Amino acid sequence: MSDRVLPQKNEEYGSKEYWDQRYNLESEEQSFDWFKSYADVADLLREIVPVKSSRILMLGCGNSTLSQDMYEDGFKNIVNTDYSRVLIEKMRHKHAYAPEMEWHEMDIRDLKFETDTFDVAIDKGTMDAMMTAKADVWDPPEEVVQNCNREVDEVLRVLKKGGVFIYLTFGQPHFRKRYLERPETTLEIRKIGEAFHYYLYIVRT
Ligand SMILES: C[S@@+](CC[C@H](N)C(=O)[O-])C[C@H]1O[C@@H](n2cnc3c(N)ncnc32)[C@H](O)[C@@H]1O
Fold first, then answer.
1. Which pTM does this prediction carry?
2. pLDDT per position as a tens digit, 51-87
3. Residue 201, SS3 per DSSP
4. Cα(129) to centroid of ligand 1, in Å?
5. Which three-class secondary structure state does DSSP give residue 95?
6. What's the pLDDT tens digit per position in 133-188?
7. 109 and 154 in contact (C-beta within 8 Å)?
8. Mutate to test the pocket of ligand 1, among 22, 36, 83 (most ligand atoms within 8 A of CB)
């Protein structure tokens, strides 16, 4: 990753201005995958999402190649969202060859989709970007709690009954379960990796 795209403070990852500025850079960073690439998790995703025609919501797609790689693996029905307009325009242009994929400038805390319309929702590192406020990680600020809960509320609203929300993060269960556990859903957690661990949170509606 080039120094030009690194923020001066970690908190900047939580601001739309940071992401707009990062994605605006000409010719730099064609793509960047946070945490893991599709190849690293493809077997797991194919197991969790056995139906290739599933309608999949990508939350905060960034310029990751995850959607493109999934598309090439047969998951054609992917609806991508990100709140950075410049990013969404670039990604729509870049993926013009893949007409089944959609690209929407949208805040994941306020999804503009109908209730019960997706089979799958995927978040790879996006909730984490909303957790970068400078604070005690054991006692996150109310704003962080609200933002994460709003995302999960919205995801559960747009998922069909029997749907699945897949969240990939480095965040350990103690810091993430509080947003993902709901009385009406089940939560499974899988640990990935050798020396440094990542976690796959699987919420089923
Ligand atoms: C850490 S990056 C992850 C990108 C991608 N998912 C990946 O795996 O590489 C976070 C992305 O989420 C977007 N984002 C952050 N907060 C968002 C929000 N509230 N609504 C929509 N997009 C958001 C940012 O613009 C950025 O593209």
1. 0.94
2. 999 999 999 999 999 999 999 999 999 999 999 999 9
3. strand
4. 7
5. coil
6. 777 778 889 999 999 999 999 999 999 999 999 999 999 999 999 999 999 999 99
7. yes
8. 83
* 144 vs 141: CA distance, rounded Å: 5
CATH code at position 28: 3.40.50.150
Structural domain total, the chain:
1
Tokens of 154: 């919205």
Long-range contacts of 76-79 (CB under 8 A, 24+ apart): 76/52, 76/100, 76/101, 77/53, 78/102, 79/55, 79/104, 79/113, 79/118
Q: Is the CB of 88 under 6 A from ligand 1?
A: no
Query: What is the domain extent for residue 179?
Result: 3-204
Q: What does the radius of gyration of the chain's CA atoms come to, in whole angstroms? A: 16
Is the CB of 19 within 6 Å of ligand 1?
Answer: yes
